[in-house]
Amino acid sequence: MKFAAWNPGRIVFGTGSLETLGDEASKLGSKALLVTGKHFARKYGYIDRISKIMEESGLKVDVFDKVEPNPSTDTVDKGSDYAREKGIDLVVAFGGGSAMDAAKGIAVVAALGGKTVDYLFPNKVEGEVYPVIAIPTTAGTGSEVTKYAVITDTQQEMKRVIVSEKIIPKVAVLDPTVLKHLSPELTSWTGFDALSHAVEAYMHKLATPMSDLYAEKAVEIIFENLVDAIKGDMNAREKMHFASLLAGYAINLAGTVAVHGLGYYLTTGYGLHHGLANAFLLPYVVKYNIPAIEEKLAQLAVKAGAGSKDPTLFLEKLVKLEDEAGIPDSLRNVGIKESDIDILVKKALRQDRTIARNPREMGEKEIREIFLQAYRGRRNL
């Protein structure tokens, strides 16, 4: 047995943990840039609250609240310019995956210079970046503990990533009380983002006993709690927050596979929420991979509550969970046309970083068939 593991960040988890932010931030810097989205943080008073918490610990705080869903290279460049102008030495992210990924990008570009595109994979991050504190407001992305920052390259019109252990947040503050604002719809979609991370890491060619450990526990928690979390049960939402963290650890140690690669353009090209895009594709990628990792998916069936080791039972449990969570049955239900499949296949073929790590080889023919199945819907599985 051989593997390497790297989880260097500090985790502060639990109700009220947001109040520890000042102490945590003061250990890492003196001039903080709060990076967040355009609406949520201001609507619910978190910009003022977070700024006050840090200011009371002696920090100077500036705010960059321009992050859009699926942040672009242009936005990260603007945030980096602003950070340099203000002389910041610490980046604090508050929001979902978009805010956290943008913050990571800003921490890189502001510290090292240049443009965001200079650091997108396969380019590397050389040199020290500004420390990041991440405060997730959804139970989905796990970005608070990962080495990835997913950024939309506006020149190439595709999602790309900065990949570096240097951008793993120094501190992740997970306060489940922020999840009270999530709608049932977003709770469902972000929950499937977390589930997709766990399952994809488990299927990944580079999966290890460590990544499997995190992935299995995340799957178990999500299947037990997602439906109740959607209904507003705060105890279930707290557990989903923890599951998302575990799934983040899983992809940090392994990575994502074809679900993400095929789903990216559903988000950037058609405006589907990233978690929803993953939900549409996850059952079909799992089904496709069964011949390559039958034993592993049989084990996952047990973690999902199937009661026996059978990969087809995991698929059945997954489909049932999507039904209960209100995921639309097919791509047709969200306006995707059969004629769109050609462009979806073309765009997916550009995502070699994820597709190449799928446990079963996948080419244009196989990708097309998966999209056709997703178009027809779960009832035809």
Summed up, what is this model?
The chain is an alpha/beta fold and 381 residues long. The chain has 15 helices and 8 strands.
CATH topology of the largest domain: Dehydroquinate synthase-like, alpha domain
Into which percent range does the helicity of residues fall? 40-55%
The description of the largest β-sheet is:
6 strands, parallel
Structural class: alpha/beta
CATH architecture of the largest domain: Up-down Bundle
List the strand order in the largest sheet: 1-8-5-4-2-3
> Class of the largest domain in CATH?
Mainly Alpha
How many DSSP helices?
A: 15
CATH homologous superfamily caption of the largest domain: Dehydroquinate synthase-like - alpha domain
Query: Uncertain regions: pLDDT < 50 for 5+ in a row?
Result: none
Q: What coarse outline follows from CA principal-axis ratios?
A: globular
Secondary-structure element series:
EHEHHEHEHEEEEHHHHHHHHHH
